Amino acid sequence: MDTQQVKDTVKQIFTEYLNANGHRKTPERYAILDTIYSIDGHFDIDTLYSLMMDQEKFRVSRATLYNTIILLMNARLVIKHQFGNTSQYEKSYNRDTHHHQICTQCGKVTEFQNESLQSAIESTKLNRFQLSHYSLYIYGLCSRCVRANKKKKLNNTNKKEK
Amino acid sequence: MDTQQVKDTVKQIFTEYLNANGHRKTPERYAILDTIYSIDGHFDIDTLYSLMMDQEKFRVSRATLYNTIILLMNARLVIKHQFGNTSQYEKSYNRDTHHHQICTQCGKVTEFQNESLQSAIESTKLNRFQLSHYSLYIYGLCSRCVRANKKKKLNNTNKKEK
DNA sequence: GTCAGTGCAAACTTTTTGCAACTAC
DNA sequence: GTAGTTGCAAAAAGTTTGCACTGAC
Fold first, then answer.
1. d(CA B117, CA B97)
2. Does B135 touch chain A (CB under 8 A)?
3. What is the tens place of the pLDDT at every residue in B46-82?
4. What is the pTM of this model?
5. What 3-state class would DSSP assign to B101?
6. Mutation site for A-interface testing, chosen from B132, B145, B149, B153 by largest number of A Cβ within 10 Å
7. What's the confidence (pLDDT) of residue B56?
8. Could you tell me if B2 and B69 lie in one domain?
9. B66 touches chain A (CB under 8 A)
10. Best residue in B127, B136, B149 to probe A by mutation, most A CBs within 10 Å?
11. Which residues of B66-96 are buried (b: 16+ CB within 10 A; e: fewer)?
12. What residue in B sits closest to A136 (Cα-Cα)?
C-alpha cells in the first residue's frame, strides 16, 4: 500500500470515528492526520507543530494538536510512547509491529522486528483484560556507546598507570 | 529473603557503587534507598517525598530525590517507568520479573507474571545491543471498565428508544 | 580544608485549562 | 442558531538548575 492509499484509508477511518462519536470534521483535524501520516517513525508535539508551521500546510495551535492526537489515539490511528522526557507518538495504521531498543546512555531509539517475539506476546493469555495494543521497550547500551565506554575505560587505565 | 535482608544487601550494593564511582556516602542517600525498598509496587517522586516527610524518616528535598534516584538507576537498584504523566519508579533488586497491564480508560496498572513470555523476551537475539533490562506494557481495558462501558452503552440505547 | 552534595527557590519544559471568537452542522 | 472547536495566553505539573551552605572525606 503506498502512502497516498494509506492516507486515504486512515482519513476514512477517522471520518467514521468522528461521525460515530459526534465530533466535528474540521479541516484542522484532517490536516493533522495527513501530516502525521507523512512522518516516518516517532515524533513529538513540538516536531509536529514545527512541521505544520514550516510547510504551507494548515496552521494549528499546540492545544489543537494535543486535542486531536487524543482523538487519533482513540481511533487507533496513533499510538503514544513515553521515552525520555517528551511524549512521542507514531502512526499505527498499516505499520508492521515492531519493538523498541532504547540506549540508556545516549537515548537513541531503534526499532526492530521479531516475529516469534511478537506471536509470544500476542498469544499471552490475559486475565480479565481486553488487549488493545502493547509496547516492548528494551533498555541497554547501543554498540556506539559500548565502544565509547571501552575507549574511556582504556584512557582512564592509562592515566592511572602514568 | 525477607525485607530486612534485602535492604541490607541493596545497601551494600549501593555502597559499592558509590565507592566505585567516587560518590559520597551521605545519610540522605541511604535513607532514600531504605524508603524505596519499603515500598511495594510503583511510586512517583511526590509519593516518595511525602512518605519521607510524614514518617520520622530523614527529611530530604525533591532535588535530592531526583539526584539520588539517578544514582540508584545506575546502580541497577531502581527502574523507571513512564505510564501517564509522571515518572514512576520501582525497586528492582530481588523482584520477580513482571509485565504491566495498563487500562487505557482508568489508567490502572496491574502487574502480571508469565514465564514463557519472559523467556521469549530474554532469549531474543539483539543486534549489536547490550541488554540491561526491559519493560512490556500491555494496553487495553480492565474488566471494570469493560463492564462500565457495556452498562453505558445499554443506557444510551434505552434513551434513544424512548 | 576542600569540594561533592544538599536545600531552596527560581527557571524551564511539557501539557492542560479557561475563555472569547469561530465555524461545522 | 448553537454547541463543539479553535487559538491564545495563563496556569499547572513535573523536572532541572543556580547558588549559598553544609558535611563527608
1. 10
2. yes
3. 999 999 988 766 899 999 999 999 999 999 999 999 9
4. 0.88
5. strand
6. B132
7. 67
8. yes
9. no
10. B136
11. eebbebbeebebbbbbbbeeebbbbbbbeee
12. B136
More confident residue, A136 or A83: A136
Burial A147-162 (b: 16+ CB within 10 A, else e): eeeeeeeeeeeeeeee
The answer to whether the Cβ–Cβ distance between A139 and B131 falls below 8 Å is: yes
Residues of B in contact with A143 (CB under 8 A): 128-129
Which residue is closest to D25 in terms of CA–C1' distance?
A: B24
Query: Could you read off the pLDDT of A55-101 as tens digits, one per residue?
Result: 766 899 999 999 999 999 999 999 999 987 889 999 999 999 999 99
Residue A39 phi/psi, 5-degree rounding, is -95, 130
Task: Give mean pLDDT, residues B93-107.
Answer: 90
Q: How many domains does chain B have?
A: 2
Same domain (yes/no): A133, A152: yes
Same domain, B101 and B151: yes
* Pair A79, A102 in one domain: no
Please tell me whether residues B80 and B146 are part of one structural domain: no
